[in-house]
Write a structure and sequence with these properties.
It is a single chain. The protein is of the alpha/beta class. It folds into 2 domains: 146 residues, Elongation Factor Tu (Ef-tu), domain 3 (Beta Barrel); 149 residues, Rossmann fold. Helices cover 32% and strands 20% of the residues. The strands form 3 sheets. Strands 1, 2, 3, 4, 5, 6 and 9 form a 7-stranded antiparallel sheet that branches. A 5-stranded parallel sheet has the order 12-11-10-13-14, with helices on both faces. A hairpin with a 4-residue loop joins strand 7 and strand 8. Helix 4 crosses helix 5 and helix 10 packs parallel to helix 12. The longest helix has 15 residues. The N and C termini lie far apart (48 Å). It binds flavin-adenine dinucleotide. The site of flavin-adenine dinucleotide has 22 residues, from strand 5, strand 6 and helix 6.
Length: 398
């Protein structure tokens, strides 16, 4: 009975086609901006259906790993045939409530000794030709067997041996950039946002291919159909305060630090989740990169801003194109400082603040916050201590 009521409500609320169109417009990785190339995709993996699955997604809490029969049904559905068995599988898959209950959240399901074997669906370059370095959107099929929630990370074990010790390469962590429902909205895929790590050799005055990053290059060079060894999901630092939907969410990212916020923003504004319905705060994204070609998912943020002017703000810091108030390069801390007063006021009222991206961003950020606190007559140490104690302070830098 309960399930019938929920199905009916879901169908009334989401009216299929509208949901799909909105999802695709804002997040489909196949929509590459002009000048941004398409590295590898698997046409056979693309899903054009909407229907009951799309309507169901987001109505319940944490997904659990489905049974093999359910996985079969999900794969069948991906090929475009949504069978009754597949629909029923998804209903069971999402049978959790209330959505704020974290007692069943996935945590380290797959460990390095027995990793899960996912399959690459697509890898595409998502930065323009003048970007400093390359960043790729990597979509992986986990067949519904490796569920996660927004703010968690996957581990990737690159193939091969470490030449330094002859042992198998070790796991590297990547923040998950899709919501729990994946970009296919079926709960069977995971998206990563990976920057290709290269080594600039000062003597050679060019990149030294022998010293390039192992795992990031492996992922950026992967092809559709490649098997990829995964661990996790892990991470409890970057979770959303879903039990307090009135809370302001301030997100500060440098480069690929955008990944967890992409998962948040899909959940808050793109998918018709119960949290999206309840959310009454302000989501405020600060993104710092070198230049406009290096912006990540920029069109998506602009689309969300247009649709949700009262609940979403988006500010960028382009260090090589913009200047700060002192005429220097505009770094992420300079952009946040422009709104320092308001950020502090919102934090004082309970906002959560998140920092993700390069480790090097934190000293500048902390220095800036200390300066703003001083100007407001606040004791910086005490203020931050209070934020940490209240769980309002979230940092994941690497
Ligand atoms: P490694 O092979 O581990 O090399 C590291 C660096 O050393 C590279 O820059 C490489 O060029 C350089 N190097 C290699 N050999 C030499 C040498 N002989 N001398 C000098 N330098 C050398 N990254 C992302 O892109 N996206 C994410 O979303 C993301 N999320 C993360 C989340 C967490 C929680 C953490 C901890 C890290 C995250 N990372 C993320 C970073 C990621 O885990 C890897 O550290 C990164 O991709 C580099 O790994 P790699 O295997 O490519 O480089």
């Amino acid at each position: 009975m309960m399930r019938t009521v929920l199905i009916t409500l879901a169908c009334m609320a989401y009216a299929g086609a509208g949901f799909r169109v909105q999802t695709e417009a804002a997040f489909q990785p196949t929509g590459v901006a002009p000048g941004r190339s398409h590295r590898a995709t698997s046409p056979s993996m693309s899903y054009s259906g909407g229907g009951a699955w799309g309507q169901w997604l987001g109505n319940k809490g944490f997904p659990k790993a489905p049974s093999p029969a359910e996985v079969e049904a999900q794969i069948a559905a991906r090929s475009g045939t949504v069978t009754a068995a597949a629909e029923s599988a998804v209903q069971d898959f999402l049978e959790f409530e209330p959505y704020t209950d974290r007692s069943t959240m996935p945590d380290n399901t797959f460990k390095p000794k027995s990793p899960f074997e996912g399959k690459i669906i697509s890898v595409e370059r998502i930065v323009g030709p003048k970007a400093t370095g390359e960043t790729c959107n990597v979509v992986i099929d986990h067949f519904g067997k490796m569920p996660y929630i927004e703010g968690q990370s996957y581990g990737v074990i690159p193939p091969g041996l470490n030449p330094k010790n002859g042992k198998p390469n070790k796991v590297r962590l990547y923040s998950i950039a899709s919501s729990r429902y994946g970009d296919d909205t079926k709960g069977t895929t995971t998206t990563l946002c990976v920057r290709r790590a290269t080594y600039w050799c000062p003597e050679m005055e060019k990149e030294d291919p022998a010293k390039k990053g192992v795992c990031s290059n492996y992922l950026c060079d992967a092809s559709a159909g490649d098997v990829v060894k995964l661990t996790g999901p892990t991470g409890k630092v970057m979770l959303l305060p879903e039990d307090k939907p009135e809370t302001d969410i301030i997100m500060v990212a440098t480069g690929t630090g955008i990944a967890p916020y992409r998962s948040f923003l899909k959940r808050m504004f793109i998918e018709k989740t119960p949290f999206a319905k309840d959310f009454k705060g302000l989501a405020w994204l600060f993104l710092g990169v070198a230049n406009s070609d290096a912006l990540l998912y920029d069109e998506d943020w602009k689309a969300i801003e247009k649709e949700n002017p009262d609940n979403f703000r988006y500010d960028v810091a382009l260090s090589r194109e913009m200047t700060n108030k002192d005429g220097g390069k505009m770094y992420i801390q300079d952009k946040v400082e422009e709104y320092g007063d308001e950020v502090f006021d919102r934090l004082d009222k309970g906002a959560h603040i998140y920092f993700c991206g390069l480790k090097g961003m934190m000293p500048g950020i902390q220095g800036m916050l200390e300066k703003v606190a001083g100007a407001k007559g606040l004791n910086y140490e005490e203020f931050i201590k209070k934020l940490k104690k209240n769980g309002q302070w979230h940092v994941e830098v690497y």
